[in-house]
Amino acid sequence: WSRLAAERNRKIEAERAAEAAALAARRAAERKEGGEGGDDAAADASKARLNKQRRSAAKIAQEAVAAAHAAIESKAAAATPPPPAAAPAATPPPAAAPAAAPAVPTAETL
Questions:
Q1: Most CB atoms closer than 10 Å: which of 31, 38, 58, 92?
Q2: Is there a contact between 22 and 15 (Cβ–Cβ < 8 Å)?
Q3: Under the phi-then-psi rule, with left for phi > 0, alpha for psi from -120 to 50, and beta for the rest, what region is 9?
Q4: What's this model's pTM, rounded to 2 decimal places?
Q5: In the 8-state DSSP scheme, what is residue 89?
Q6: Largest CA distance in the chain
Q7: Which residues, 6+ apart, have CB-to-CB distance to 31 below 8 Å?
Q8: 27 to each of 20, 30, 33, 45, how far by Cα in Å?
Q9: What is the predicted pLDDT for the residue at 109?
Q10: What is the separation of C-alpha 87 from the centre of its chain, rounded to a whole number of angstroms?
Q11: Are 68 and 58 in contact (CB under 8 A)?
Q12: What's the average pLDDT block by block, 10 residues per block, for the chain (110 residues)?
């Protein structure tokens, strides 16, 4: 009985080894055909991480530009003096004196 059991175990081990070799050959063929083959999930995860980093960098850049614009606007607002208070219009402006004739003839007077 022990000889028969040992022989049966050897057959089972040989079948398992053949199945493992066939699986390895199939995976190698998939890698050859598809370039990456089984690494598609890893490639997708890598692309997703890269896209997330790009979005984060773009958001940070937009915030930096907005902060720079706000700083420029605040400097411009601080540099611009406030408009003078409206003077009461109780007194009319003085009438303009008649213009004196020019001493030197100009193109308009010729």
A1: 31
A2: no
A3: alpha
A4: 0.37
A5: -
A6: 142
A7: 37, 38, 39
A8: 11, 5, 10, 21
A9: 63
A10: 52
A11: no
A12: 86 92 89 65 81 88 88 80 57 54 61
